[in-house]
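3.2 Worked example (two chains)
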Amino acid sequence: MASEVEENLPDSELRGAARLLPASLRSYWFLARFDRPIGSWLLFWPGAWAIALAGGAARRWDLVLWLGLGAIAMRGAGCVYNDIVDRDLDRKVARTADRPLASGRLSLKAAWAFLCLLCLVGLVVLLQFNPPAAMSALASLFAVALYPFMKRITWWPQAWLGLVFSWGALVGWPAITGGFAPTLWLLYAGSVFWVIGYDTIYALQDIEDDALAGVKSSARALGRNVRAGIALCYAVAIACWAAAFWEVRPQLLSTAALLPVSIHLLWQVAALVAADPADALAKFRANRFAGLLMFLACLVVSSTA
């Protein structure tokens, strides 16, 4: 019976490794959203960009891999924590009502234990970085802890998510350089606006249920202007990234490396069907590829600096 219920979860996907797991472990897999790796990719990319733009992608490829593991573990931990805090709200939204905690398939005690296990994995990753990077990573915990409450107090929880999901840049750069620099802050600012843009697209899936449940979001705040709002966020992101590239290589040619990712983000906005949840999810997931294009741009600029 449990497997039959989980196959119909609107917020989970019973595929890949999830199909191989016994039913008793499947709820943990879904709780951490391991069935939906897009979140791990989006958390990973800003850190990878910072390492690449700082010129460390080739000689410290091991740190890129550690960042990847950290992104998987800490994104999972963030999802577990978010579901612990939001379990009552999740019951009121159709897409999230059958999540393991909201549906009661998993106990609160079990969720906390799983959260601790994921944090231990994060600690192992943390120990691989130099002190400035490690301290920066630890500082992110405050922002992570507050995120689930933002949708209750502000119409722009996506802005706070931008701060959290871009934090990898504040870890990757000092991991290579040992410190912070204007280039990093421009890269980070661009990532924040990128996250606001793509998470506004994601929020379009729940706009009606969020209104009924009283959940705030940028998608609801923007209303009919949502496409223009997303476009503005993406435009600011590109401008910040162009400025960061200029800091590394002060030539107009360096900004040309942003052309592929700029075209991709423009396509997202132009082709977005705001009223179609399936299309919103597809455009949101397309940002995994946008992250890759930005990573390649960082590699090009750093290698020619």
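3.2.1 Second chain
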Amino acid sequence: MPDLPKAVVLFSGGLDSTTILAIAKAEKFDVHALTISYGQRHSVEVDVARRIAAAAGVARHIVLDIDLTQFGGSALTADIAVPKGRSEGDMAAGIPVTYVPARNTVFLSLALAWAEALGAFDIFIGVNALDYSGYPDCRPEFIAAFESTARLATKAGVEGAGSIRIHAPLIDFTKQAIIERGLVLGVDYGATVSCYDPGLSGAPCGNCDACQLRAKGFRDAGLDDPALA
């Protein structure tokens, strides 16, 4: 049996990235999961990512520590209040303070470095341009631009050995569609976390943008969120 192609999956332990991990495995990739511990307020997700990656049987899971609190500029990395109780209209208007400056550019660069070291040409990321909070680095234009940069910036790309592909299969999915796709693949959403401002126990706040978008996805799918059971 031939070896499976290797892929790096950016993996936070959240709803979207857990679905992405399941998609990569279903597409017969040898999954190498990369979790970035960047000083995020919702650091509980790192422990969740460890548990889910272990249960999924990935080839390797790296938790990489960087400290974006040194830069701040976001409610997730600085002493800035996480917005709560915003309407769908509010969430669709402008870029919220939970945006972490250049986060996906940084994350994809780190994933690219590992992919190049592995001899992998495939990187998966769970960005979404529909049910999301207005982040500029979740748009299709950004993903296409980074993929082009990756092909220019790598030894394999320059020498013609292969081209990096950035997979963002959820980019035009609603949260409902993401959940329905994941359930077909056997994703246990009860194990995932989404909240930007969880309590000390890790319980979701229920009112931040991430919690509200997640709740809407399950509600639209006609399902209860198993994480709240």
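3.3 Remarks
The mean pLDDT is 94.
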